[in-house]
Amino acid sequence: xxxxxxxRRRELTDAIKSHVLSGLDRLESEYEKLTSxxxxxxxxxxxxxxxxxxHGSHIEIEANGRDENLWCAIDQAVDRAxxxxxxxxxxxxxxHHKSLAEIDLELAARDELAEAVNE
Length: 119
Description:
Structural class: alpha+beta
Shape: elongated
Number of strands: 4
Oligomer: single chain
């Protein structure tokens, strides 16, 4: 996965970059088909703004974090991206339908149970 980390109105230290990369590694392990990640670290007055943009196979996620503490803003943005990614993956995995044979078996079991209760 291509990882781009940039800073607006601030210099990025190695510690900041390593913290961002550890969060991106966590996201990459969750979904292997991510092709690129872009993180923009910005400072506006007293707040730090972190924007995480993920691109992948049929997926595009944008998450923001905002806090007075830079480390909290990074964690917040990565956590929000992870939550969105998990929600997107759950939507894709929940489209498995039952076969007609399984539905017939369930209906037959309900009918037998209803007959047993009525007797």
